[in-house]
Design brief:
Helix Hairpins; ten-stranded mixed beta sheet; 14 helices; alpha/beta; two-stranded antiparallel ribbon; rod-shaped; D-Maltodextrin-Binding Protein, domain 2
């Protein structure tokens, strides 16, 4: 009796597994609508054909899945995300960064690519940067303060000396200029000796100025040197907060925009990476914040390496995954295959290629 029960159980499990397999194949036999938007080097359109790292990853996945599919193109990332959220497409293979806000709107597969949010800017020439600093307000302000202090002590000495020491500190404007000369010579410790206070008041002011000058000249010199220091934008950016000092542009609907909004960084929005790069070239913005691999690819593609550069500093780590409408059954079918694909030699070769 027990043998017959085991046989019936085995037959039941066999037919259940076969039915499940048929259901799975039936669900994937329908033509899948895969949403995409051009995002080189992940999704590239050339002569009507799509290629790129994301396209290749899907082709590897579909070798096992065996589904019939077609791509449905959208003009922008924000339009694609809306289509996924509303279920207009079955899913998207575009490089979409997984964020908390996006996870509230849609589901994501395991990440298939790890990236970073980067910053692109115009390349800086050290000579021009130095000249710009030389004529900056900080430098001019330091010089004016220095001249003002020299003139003050020169004038004070002249008050005591212009009557009793007319040979060295004459009357009127000419005498004040002579006091200015003495004050400058004293501060710099040149010590020409052509002028020296003779009165008690003049020497007292001179003594105070000698000791004060030692302290002031060191501080003022450090301030002037600091204003002349050639500091590039790269040195000034150490966190997202530092971006508030610059004119920043990013792509509408991107994870970079979410990051900038989180830190209240005032940002101009553009439709795609091409327009963002052009804004930097035209001087409309100082920095373009976006996905680092996309920035580098666009700069290389347009041969702009001499004009633009991507900073070594990155703002955050990004994880790209396929995006699905909430509760999509396709996620459970595609996710395990995608994870297995990432361990293959073909995928590693693709990463090296791109």
């Amino acid at each position: 009796m027990i043998k017959y029960l085991k046989l019936l159980l085995f037959i039941g499990l066999f037919f259940s597994a076969e039915t499940y397999a048929q259901d799975t194949l039936a669900s994937t036999s329908e033509k899948l609508q895969i949403g995409i938007t051009e995002t080189p080097p992940f999704v590239v359109k050339d002569n009507g054909e799509y290629s790129g790292l994301s396209i290749s990853s899907w082709e590897l996945v579909n070798e096992e899945l065996g589904a019939d599919y077609e791509f449905k193109a959208y003009p922008s990332l924000i339009g694609l995300m809306d289509a996924v959220e509303k279920g207009e497409v079955d899913f998207s293979i575009n490089p979409v960064t997984v964020t908390d806000l996006r996870m509230q709107r849609m589901d994501f597969s395991q990440p298939y690519f790890i990236s970073f949010t980067g910053v692109a800017k115009k390349s800086e020439t050290m000579i021009w940067t130095y000249l710009a600093n030389l004529f900056s307000w900080n430098f001019i302000k330091g010089i004016l303060i220095l001249l003002g202090v020299i003139l003050l002590f020169g004038f004070l000495v002249w008050i005591f000396e212009h009557k009793k020491n007319k040979e060295e500190f004459g009357p009127g404007a000419r005498g004040i200029l002579q006091g200015f000369w003495w004050s400058a010579v004293t501060m710099t410790t040149v010590g020409y000796g052509d002028k020296a206070p003779r009165t008690f008041g003049g020497r007292f002011i001179g003594l105070i100025w000698m000791f004060m000058a030692i302290v002031m000249i060191s501080g003022l010199t450090a301030g002037i040197a600091s204003s002349l220091t050639v500091q590039s934008i790269s040195d000034e950016i150490t966190s997202v907060e530092d971006l508030k000092r610059f004119d920043v542009v990013t792509v509408t609907g991107s994870s970079a925009l979410e990051l900038l909004d989180q830190y209240a960084v005032k940002t101009e929005e553009v439709a795609d990476e091409r327009q963002g790069i052009q804004d930097i070239l035209d001087g409309k913005s100082s920095l373009f914040v976006y996905d680092q691999p996309i920035l580098k690819y666009e700069i290389d593609r347009r041969d702009l390496g001499d004009e633009l550069e991507v900073l070594q500093q990155t703002l955050k780590r990004d994880y790209y995954g396929y995006s699905f409408p909430k509760g999509s059954p396709l996620l459970k079918k595609i996710d395990p295959i995608l994870v297995g694909t990432l361990k293959t030699l073909e995928w590693n070769n693709l990463l090296e290629e791109y």
